[in-house]
């Protein structure tokens, strides 16, 4: 599992610049082409969107582990409670 700390605004800007420059280079656009155009043509979202999506997925997976544990314990509780009534 990879843990990432919080990035500063400067680091986000640096990642965005690299991402936009890469999009322009891949498509063969002139370096002065607007970055938004280069990214939109190939469907690249801003870096911060990817970071937020990964953070949200991590939190959902983390929360689901505890829901699963809770449900297992609940099922075991009811199984143990009512198992004496089953033949």
Describe it for me?
The structure is a single chain. By secondary structure, the chain is mostly helical.
Structural features:
mainly alpha; 3 helices; about 70% helix; rod-shaped
The SSE string, one letter per element, is HHH
N- to C-terminal separation?
45 Å
- The shape, in one word, is rod-shaped
Low-confidence stretches are: none
What is the helical fraction, as a range of percent? over 70%
Query: What is the number of helices?
Result: 3
Total beta-strand segments: 0
User: How much of the residues is beta strand, in percent?
Assistant: under 5%
Counting helices, strands and paired strands, the structural category is mainly alpha
Largest sheet features = none
User: What is the CA-atom radius of gyration, in angstroms?
Assistant: 24 Å
**Mean pLDDT across all residues, rounded?**
79
Topology (SSEs and partners):
Elements (H helix, E strand, L loop, with lengths): L8 H19 L7 H8 L4 H36 L5
Describe the structure concisely for a colleague.
Helices cover 72% and strands 0% of the residues. The chain has three helices and no strands. With 87 residues, the protein is mainly α.
